[in-house]
Amino acid sequence: MTMPASGYAKLIEELGELSEAVSGMLICPSEVTRSMLDHMEQEMGDLYAAFDIILFINKFDLSPNTLTMTRDKALLDMKMQSGGEWAQLLEAMGSLVAVLGKKLAYWHTNEHPDGKSMHDRIAQHMGTVCGCLDHFLFNDEYGIDRGVVNDRRCKKYALFVQWHRDPNNAVHALGYGS
Question: Fewer Cβ within 10 Å of end Cβ, the chain: N or C?
Fold first, then answer.
């Protein structure tokens, strides 16, 4: 059984990089610059691509609405916030990192010892992060260019698929699988 460690590790890396970009926005939201927004757009595209590749690698057996329902609830919650949107995004990303850490600890199974599905947990937290990101993406007051984010997402996804299909990818160096 091969562990998709590279996919989870890449997702954790992208969450960390977006967290860094968001932290700058949170520290001084009144002094957001175009270069900060450019960085945010790039990191958002990378994270969306990492979500896409995780779903591709793992072929999650999800009900069709798992991600959408969670995303829509998070998007609604974000619209109800007044000023704490960046912090809510950071919190959602941190929760996803925690769930990914559990999956890495129990990589050989989809079941956590408490009996809950790891894939369902990951999908729910991914949906929450997507809802938070969509709040910024579709709210013009933040100045984030959806086209830039989508272009970056497509380019990074193609790169991630290429890496995933590479038989010399370092995932085997981790000692998992054949």
Answer: C
